[in-house]
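User: I'm putting together notes for a lab meeting next week and I want to include a structural view of one of the chains we've been expressing. I don't have a solved structure, so I'd like a prediction I can at least talk through. The sequence is below, exactly as it appears in our construct file.
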Amino acid sequence: MVSIPNIYKGKYVKYYILVPLLLMVLGAYFSTKVILGPSLSGGVQITMLTNQTIAPSLLASEISGKLGVFNPQIVESSGSISVTLPLNGSIGSGERYLLDFYAYNSNYTAALYNTTAFENAYKSNPSNTTLSSQIQISKDEMNRSLAGMGSSLSAELSALRPFIGSQTFNSTDVTGMTTLANSAYNASLSRYKNNVVSAITGIVPAKSYQFEEVSATLGSFFLSQLKIVIITAFILVSLIIFIVIFRSPIPAFAVVFGALNDIVVSVGAMAVFKIPLDIASIGGLLMLIGYSIDTDVLTSVRILKRHEGTAEDRAYSAMKTGLTMTTTAIVSFAVLFIVSLVVYVPTYYEISGIVLFGLIADIFTTWLGNASMVLLYKKRKEKI
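Assistant: Thanks for the context. Below is the predicted structure for the 384-residue chain, given as structure tokens.
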């Protein structure tokens, strides 16, 4: 059995924290490049009834080649196959510009109503300078909103050009612009749907199919809500650790730092290895928070609240136990990751991937970061 030296005996303990800090910086950099899955970025799902069977990994490869999409998610069950694809970039952009158009259109309608009301009142009281000023303000708002409608529609048509070709419009015709904005998006979505269905049914003949869309707007809403969930989880955990367990800011900060570092590194690793961030992987993130908090709290409690041996010995003992636990978990999730990759089960692939990367990061975070911070805090407290 390999004997691990006690790394906490020596004068270099305070430098250990630089390792997890470096990992956090790298994770933060790469996490900006993470790919969002269909449920968070928008996407389409095609469920087909078919008697033909095909390996999910092979089907995913052929769909990627035909449609030029990355990581299509395949779920196969008895008599049916469900395919989830990221939303086409042009369609997603077109939808965002269409929503901008609606916002400007709403402002234009409100300003038009106000202008008409002020003008009618002004006819009865032409000497009222306040009404005259309000009329001009409302007309200015109408002009700004009309210009915004034209700009948004132009951007929408440009984004949707691969599906509908070049289109022109009269930038002063509100009704005409509204009709074109709706028809251009609907026509583009219909053609995209036909392209997707044609490509997939060309690979797997289907008796019937169902096409569903998750809009980019709804995906953004899911993403914002998931961010709130994770931030709320961190806040609640921080309060509980500070108030209930330690009642001291340094150990509480060390524990929260450990969990945050594991999350950041994991998301960065997902970006490097092209694993999409989806609702399933958010579940993996929450699992990782729980695991990281557990190991960090147990380590901190052993160093701070037990008295057998020296603080360095207690940190070393905790490290040996913790490494055994983490290694076992890494092996388990590595097996799940490989199996889900081979048989192509995207949900397990995402969850196991993010937990696996997080567990590896947790080795450095807990035993070089959290344990070192708590140990230095304990030794400084003993000197006072």
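A couple of points you could mention at the meeting. The radius of gyration is 29 Å. The beta strands are 43-49, 73-77, 80-86, 208-214.

User: Perfect, that's what I needed.
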